[in-house]
Specification:
Radius of gyration: 17 Å
Strand content: under 5%
Number of domains: 1
Distance between the termini: 35 Å
Number of helices: 5
Largest sheet: none
Order of helices and strands: HHHHH
């Protein structure tokens, strides 16, 4: 994975285009405290998203194991985590259609959050 900057993270998180444009235009003019808060918030959001998507992908892998489509290994969670980072890289490179992917992810998260509540 390439070294990410805050603008990459904003793209992965699919933040509003107006916000991203404003961030690019004005980030250097912000106080150090504001820069820190923005950077910290973006990284925190990225890792929360990564952790949640890893859980979703891991559950998908476990379902595939139960269906006999995948072999159970002790690396399954690591594979799920790598798959999520690969998806992030694809978003940054424009390889995947972000809207389709995010809709699918939103649906999975919605169904999981409904089950847990």
């Amino acid at each position: 994975m390439k070294k990410l900057n805050i603008f990459d993270i904003a793209d992965i998180l699919q933040l509003d285009q107006e916000f991203k444009d404003n961030l690019k235009k004005n980030f250097d003019t912000y106080s150090e405290d504001t820069k820190f808060e923005i950077t910290d918030t973006l990284w925190e959001g990225l890792y929360k998203l990564q952790n949640r998507l890893t859980e979703v992908k891991y559950q998908q892998y476990m379902d595939e194991v139960a269906q006999g489509k995948r072999q159970l290994t002790n690396q399954l969670y690591s594979e799920a985590k790598r798959a999520v980072w690969s998806d992030f890289e694809d978003i940054l490179s424009g390889k995947k259609h972000e809207v389709d992917q995010m809709d699918e992810i939103r649906e999975k998260l919605k169904s999981l959050s409904t089950v847990k509540n």
